[in-house]
Amino acid sequence: MVRVKRVKIKNKKRRRLLKAVKGYRWGRKSKKKMAREAFWHAMVHSYRGRKEKKRVQRRLWQIRLNAALRERGSKYSIFMHKLKEKNIKINRKILSQIAIEHKDLFDKIFEYVNS
After folding, report:
1. CATH assignment of 8-114, given 3.10.20.740, 1.10.1900.20, 3.30.70.20, 3.90.950.20?
2. pTM of the predicted model as reported, rounded to 2 decimal places
């Protein structure tokens, strides 16, 4: 039976791993065992970070909306409740963009909701 040497595959996997951790500090960029552990930790953090980014963006939209509403003498929570009562389905992202870029349109929405 022919002897199979796995050095080629092993080195290929190692090169791919070290390429992924390029720029890491100390031994985590050059030593396989440390690099592998650092890489997997980084993957966990990147997954969590993508979820966290969505939360941060939603908070930003709420802050922007609340600031625009405070100028008009209202509050975010009251405004959102009135939107639901009037059955207006505009999400927070679009509302915050309208409040920043199209103030006259936001004023019309605000008047309609408060009437």
Report:
1. 1.10.1900.20
2. 0.70
